[in-house]
Specification:
By secondary structure, the chain is an alpha/beta fold. The chain has a single domain, classed as TIM Barrel. Strands 7-6-5-4-3-2-1-8 form an 8-stranded parallel β-sheet. Helix 2 links the parallel strand 1 and strand 2. The longest helix has 22 residues. The protein is globular.
């Protein structure tokens, strides 16, 4: 099962994703695929979604030809490994501050020879009876591993983190990074822009892709693409639902007032 997002990034193209936090119906997988998103960003760090529900999303993604990428909740290798066995085609590992932590992620989530994860699934190869070495090759080739740089310490160590073999993407968590640096979450803040540029430069030196994330304003997303971001989470279910609710009610309020109604 080819990882279309990883293939796009390796080819220097953009990959666009939709984040899941509130949804619990696998119908959203088909909606995202039909809307031409390349990946689903399934967020277990900031939601109450169960691992079983996340696995259902991952399985549905394989059938729809859209990449499932799960952000695991902190340092939880058993969660990530079980989801990879269940068909996830990628993981995002939060709070990676050092190269040693990046190497640990590779060890936990890559199968040999890159890592030490025991491959016990079969979803990614369609349960074909292949030699173990070929299974390992295909699984490593079609699994995307991203690590999150979201602290000043991570930015200081970014060249060493980006150099780790087996890491495909560096994700900058703008909100946590800004908080750690003691600055406002402002996509044009000079210190944040300097951090972005440092990450992109390190990633380019070591052949890694970048996501500059955490802020979802379209103008900011354009700015991140200009800076070199190619792994783009465009929006998500919670954000889309809240914005839709507010804009729908605002429109009806406006028309109700025009019709002489009392909305107080």
């Amino acid at each position: 099962m080819k990882n279309i997002t990883k293939d796009r990034l390796k080819a220097g193209k953009l990959a666009f994703g939709f984040q899941l936090r509130s949804s619990r119906s696998i119908e959203v997988v088909r909606m995202a695929a039909q809307s031409n998103f390349h990946f689903l960003h399934i967020d277990l760090e900031h939601s109450t979604m169960s691992i079983e529900m996340a696995a259902q999303f991952c399985t549905a993604c394989l059938g729809e030809g859209i990449t499932s990428i799960v952000r695991v909740p902190g340092d939880s290798p058993e969660t990530g490994a079980r989801l990879l066995d269940s068909g996830a085609q990628g993981l995002i590992i939060p709070h990676v501050h050092t190269a040693d932590q990046a190497r640990a992620a590779v060890e936990n989530y890559r199968v040999p020879p890159l890592g030490k994860r025991a491959e016990g699934g079969g979803s990614l190869i369609g349960w074909q009876p292949l030699p173990k070495a070929e299974i390992f090759r295909r699984v490593n080739e079609n699994t995307l591993l991203a690590v999150m740089a979201e602290s000043a310490e991570a930015i200081d160590n970014i060249d060493e983190i980006a150099a780790v073999e087996g890491v495909d993407v560096i994700v900058v968590g703008s909100n946590d990074l800004a908080a750690d640096m003691g600055i406002p979450v402002d996509g044009e803040h000079p210190r944040l822009i300097a951090a972005y540029k440092k990450v992109v430069a390190a990633a380019n030196r070591h052949g890694k892709a970048v996501r500059l994330g955490g802020i979802y304003d379209p103008q900011f997303l354009q700015r991140t693409i200009e800076l070199g971001s190619r792994f783009i989470t465009v929006t998500g279910d919670t954000r889309l639902l809240v914005n839709g609710m507010r804009s729908s009610l605002a429109e009806v309020h406006k028309r109700a007032i025009a019709a002489g109604g009392d909305i107080e």
